[in-house]
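<purpose> Linking amino acid order to shape
<body> The protein record starts here
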Amino acid sequence: MANKICPSCGRVFKGLARFCSQCGIELKKEPNKCSSPSTQLCRDAVFDEEDIFCRYCGALTTFAKERQM
């Protein structure tokens, strides 16, 4: 499950949390990125949730890596 971030204070939450326990603001899901950003293209890419591999270097996306754990 992807981490969620409070858009106000920046705290990171895992699991089923929907609101920040500090601010009460609805959390936003972190974007699905390359798990091993080795090129500038990797660092800038944002993938769909169902994407498994980075199209630029072949590494797992962050959501795919989380599902493996």
